[in-house]
Records
---
Amino acid sequence: MATYLLKTLLKALVVVLGVSLLVFVLTRSIGNPVNTMLPLGASTAERARLTHQLGLDKPLLAQLGDYVAGVAQGNFGESWWQQESALTVALRPLPFTIELSGIALVLSLVFAIPLGILSALKPRSLLDKVASTSSMLGICVPNFWLGLMLILIFSNLLHWFPTSGTGGWQYWVLPSVTLAVLPLGRITQIVRTAMLEQLRELYIVTARSKGLPEFWVVTRHALKNAGVQIVTMSGWELGRMIAGYTIAIEAVFGLPGIGSLIVDAIGQQDFPLIQAITFVIAICIVFLNILIDLSYPLFNPRVKFK
Amino acid sequence: MIKAPNLREDVSPLLSVQDLKTYFRKEEGGSVKAVDGVSLHIRKKEILGVVGESGSGKSITALSILRLFPSPPGYIAGGDILFENQSLLAKTQKEMRLIRGKDISMVFQEPMSSLNPAYTVGYQIRENIQLHQNVTKKEALDHAVDMLRLVGIASPEKRVHDYPFQMSGGMRQRVMVAMALSCQPKLLIADEPTTALDVTIQAQILRLILETREKVGSAIMLITHDLGVVAEVCERVVVMYSGKVLEVAYVNDLFNHPAHPYTQGLLQAIPRLDDTRDRLSIIPGSIPNPANLPEGCRFYPRCQYAEERCQTEQPPLVSPKPSQWVSCWRVAGEKEMDSDAIAATAAKAPLNV
Ligand SMILES: Nc1ncnc2c1ncn2[C@@H]1O[C@H](COP(=O)(O)OP(=O)(O)OP(=O)(O)O)[C@@H](O)[C@H]1O
Ligand SMILES: [Mg+2]
């Protein structure tokens, strides 16, 4: 277990460093932030002063050195745009994004697991066909469009939920439903496939031969073995949502999530902020993956951490 | 007051399968006749051997008794299964569940995949016990430990917490036997319980099943490829071929006077220590495809005695002498039965001993 943790942390370090490096290179190639930050008619002297102030006049390698040294001390520098610690700005929308993604994931699991199981129990039945068609649809439909449609129907027409913004539980309904649709489709499909695989196993016949009710056979025996695949897929979907998949939904519903912050940071060419956000997301994903790994022994006792 | 012995109870079999037909619906239409008119019976505490080549319908017959064959596509196309004089086919799913694991239990061919990898063996045995007996979790686990001890697993109070992957194939089959016998079933169906195991372990498991049965008092339906095993442990034997029963006899009779040409062929195919021939005499040809069965006797394409009649008419199961049943025109024809007499004996076949 100790070696596993050490190995995982080392791997995580490599991943986070790699991501940071990549982002560093990418930011430097999206253009010159001085152009965005100064008014149109700024003089050459002013431009030079700002370039120097931002440290952009140093050679690229030196900039990288400063950046790495800063990160090592947990210092991402000041956000050029917000004039405060880039890390603070990057962390601000994180609780909201995690909450929204978490609600969407729970919502999709609540429907995906029973739906996937029922489809697997009666493959090629009407229910199975309806479920696979709608999960395909859920995967394909663009979520900004879906969000707009939901607003149109449930806010503008029926006035059940507010159109946008944050507040009480009513504000969460439409965004999380919209966000849940794609993971719902994907997870339903993975549950179906995994359950079909398990239900073919001989241990299922053994379980039935003991006289177990079918509900137990399916939930205690088959579902537990399908757990690894379901958890992996769910973790992956959660990671995607946290990593900014929520952008379109945040835009449609006017929400203060990490997605819109990324868009703004890129628009402002705010290098320290972009770097801080990617760092935060990378850490979240790595942490999520460790959690997923640690959950495997719950479903498969053969998993040993080495 | 002396109670008169209940003759009926002694005579009536524990289980009787009557003209059972289990078919599998094919997607392109039509059916695979996996079990096509099988009749057999098992008496209380009896060990009945069921032999036959691969694909002859042994497993599907066994699974039909517990109604556990894959369905769909499988379905019962006819016949009946009586357990203690009650039709299992007429029972509801719920009633069937009360019988499974309690009155009738089963051990499968592949010990490596018949246990759930995600649960300890203790849990899996306990589950069976708790389902059918009104006991606490602790009592059930203690019983599971006792069962593991009974099937010869060393330090059972430790092994009961093991997962299947921590055990060898032989050990897992012991666990299966322990589980199957944990509620003292009246009938144990053992579907080739030793085929997947090493030769040395095969004998151990077989002995174990027999010894445990002595203590528990179950009847056994022992499905096997191995006529040697049948000779050693069974009282009677049913020879199956292509979804049909070809011969039923006491083991001694079968080995000394096999009546069906197929049985004769099988017996000649057993290697013998004093065999000086270079090659074993094996029956040429192979079992017919169940999707494309011959019209008459299923065995006629491979039978050295095949006549015209065999090609077109299916021979009935008739009894040339007490306790022996044969499905072959050479036997049925010899007795020169008219069709009515044949039908009458055939109907009695499963109940007669
Ligand atoms: N799910 C299924 N769908 C279609 N046909 C099947 C199915 N299961 C079994 N069969 C058919 O039933 C026939 C009998 O199968 P069964 O498993 O009972 O044979 P067996 O005598 O047990 O053979 P073995 O000695 O190999 O175990 C096979 O030939 C197969 O074609
Ligand atoms: Mg079989």
Note: Residues 265 and 283 of chain B are 6 Å apart (CA to CA).
---
Amino acid sequence: MSAPTATMPAAPTAGDGTLGVVPGTFQQAMILSRYQLRDYLRSRRFVLMMSIVAVVGGLLTGLIAYFRPAGVIGSATDMYGTLWGTSASGLILFAGIIFGGDAIAGEFQNKTGYFLMGLPIRRATVYAGKYTAAVAAAVVSTAVYLAIIVGNAVYYLGPGAFSDGSALLESFGLAVLYLLALVGFVFLFSSLFKTSLYAVLVVAVLFLFGFSIIQDLVVGLIHIEPWFLLSYVANTSNSVINYPFVGVPAHVSHSPLLGTTYAPGYAEAIEIMVGYLFATALGGLALFEREEFS
Amino acid sequence: MAPSIEARQLTKRFGSFVALDHLDLAVEGAVCVGFLGPNGAGKTTTLKMFTDLIFPTEGEAFINGISVQRDRKRALASCGDLIETPEIYPSLSPNEALEMSGALRGMRPEEIRDRTRVVLDEVKMTEWADKKVGKFSKGMKQRINIAASLLSDPDVVILDEPSTGLDPRGMAEVRDIIRGLKKERRLIFMSSHILSEVVDVCDRVALLNHGKLLFSDTLANVALRFDGGVRSVEAEFARPVDDPVVSGQIASLPGVSGWSRVDASRITLSLKADGDSRAELLERLAALKLGLVSFRESRSALEEVYLREISTGEGG
Ligand SMILES: Nc1ncnc2c1ncn2[C@@H]1O[C@H](COP(=O)(O)OP(=O)(O)OP(=O)(O)O)[C@@H](O)[C@H]1O
Ligand SMILES: [Mg+2]
């Protein structure tokens, strides 16, 4: 009685009326990231991030104006080394989590993915476009922070603030590389969970406690270099972002107080960050490709 | 090339639960197919596999001959879709959301501008074009979603209960939009619970229950399938009619096999299956001078077939 398969004879049609020829992958990723970035810049979390930048930057500015510590305002290298080099990685961590945490998870949780994924676009393109936007938003925040510090340097040192411009650029470049790796890492967790909060919490806990505990255990108990931890390059005491100002510390050092400690070499730090960038991108994308909107 | 969609042995299991069971369905040409079935039948599951939101356990879905599973980008290029009620990035305005959609589809800026104006006008959202979507009501968002699915003037339109969340006027507007779409060369595949809407706009229906396709046929054939003719009528009176009056005077009229009450002044009469006795019944009912004001089929043929097929499937 019922016919499970039914085919209608072709009705005459007026030809393929669909408008547009779908752009290439790269172009689509750029288009998507443009609208994503617009969404970020208007979002409450961008306001939050900017407030943090303003508070931290304002506090630094105020403290220096009040105490005028000679060791800080004496030279450009000292200024950037203390103000920027040791704090940038923390700020980047915050920006990465704020902008990347719900980038993928939010598409499922907030159902915005149903709008986006109905379009003729590959999942990898969506991932790349969203990654680019999150990185851009985080770079903007970081650049504003750096601008506040450079502003201070110009105030105290005049043109001397740029006496070692290449170190400043190099440090910013390292900061961006760290940011790329970190946002990649955050995206991996954002793809792992369909709830943004979990992604944010897991990454925050890992970076704030988890990694340092692992690092302490690995170094203290089995005495090997913790090169497999992204936080290894961002340890505040020897943050790689600070290398252009303070130089590269000894690879291994022993002290009666701290025991054995490791610091990554310059090239090694870059390898770690690039490694993380690729590994997390591949992992996160593999997860996202298999995730269902249900 | 005529637009087409096809499901080949399309199956979806969630654990051991079979949400869709080897669906074979092919539709081609400028037709509107109503995809029917009770809650949980597997309609959304099917449409999600057609748009690559979820992945089949077995089988494949094709749009215009291109496998959605193998090449989502190419398959969805000529397809506009609306599954469940998607959210749009809240900080974007309808204009910006449609601009993003159009740009990702490769439409030229002036095409996007022109089409945005047309589709927003169609869903009556022109005056909201530059407001942030985040503050919109559910129905307003749904209107924008409908507009977005039509933006590129696609060949194939896949809609999952498009009138969910809309007010009565909105539902009527959606019906008009779909009727308008049909005039051209499009294939529309639309799930719905509103049978009157389906009767109104669709040419074909496919009925799903417990993940299995019960039938797929033209509406005209569905009416034929319903061989017994009209089975029940609803009669409305200007004043209340008491039970004794109904059982004494109305239920005994020729052709009536039973009755039930809708409210004080409305009753449903079941008709005997042998031949169409409606004309005679109407005359006799009017002759009773109980104040008869309306007399009509209580269910459409589609409704009758729907209920019968579903209960057969249930083993009832
Ligand atoms: N992610 C999932 N995990 C487990 N079961 C699921 C999942 N998604 C859907 N199902 C089940 O699959 C069946 C079909 O669901 P589906 O949403 O396709 O029904 P539907 O026909 O669209 O119903 P409705 O008319 O209520 O929208 C339901 O029983 C549902 O519980
Ligand atoms: Mg559904």
Note: DSSP finds eleven helices and 14 strands in chain B.
